[in-house]
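Our platform keeps sequence and structure together, in a single record for each protein. Because each token names a local backbone shape, the row as a whole describes the fold. One such record is reproduced below, unchanged from the form in which we store it:
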Amino acid sequence: MYVEVCSDMTSTTRRLCHSKFEGVAIDFRARTQALELLTKLHKMTSHHGAVVLAILDRNGDVPSAFRSGANFILERPFASKILVPTLKASYSLMLQERRRYFRFPVQIPVHLSSTRSHLEFLTTSVNISERGMALETPVALYVGEKVQAKMLLPGTNHSAQVNGEVCWSNEHGRIGIRFVLVSPGVAELFRSWLSDRLEESVPGKVLAKS
């Protein structure tokens, strides 16, 4: 677990806008600012699922913190018999959140076809997640264009086919595909394959407890 500390609202908001965090700990000593930050956090698309730990003084307003969206409460002075189980439980939820956004860098051939222009061509993946993928393509595609992608994930014997939509493109020949229609079997294939890749970067015993 890597920790970054921000001491004011401006720097905290800026950091949240430019980075993805699975967990956010908020000190409620400055209650008004803490509640404002929680409101902003839940409005951010990339952080609405982040695990929130509220840090309160003894006899702090626990119900208010939970109503505001906190997942866990840590009370000062910290006691290890409470702190350790709370952090373990919160870390498990953080790993679940990381799974949702985990993007694995991999270069594999991807057969792409456009439903509008009826073009079919071979591209190369840049990275893959459960929700989409980035590609290097020799053919210019427009944002909003509907496509179908076929690929063979490394280490698997089943071809994966998904329907998607171009959600971004740049001048370097790269595009982003957001998955729109994925069969249950293919979705499970992606989840299993990406989970194995995530396990390679996180201690196995931690994942087993999540």
Summary: The helical segments are 9-18, 31-43, 62-67, 80-101, 184-201, 204-209.
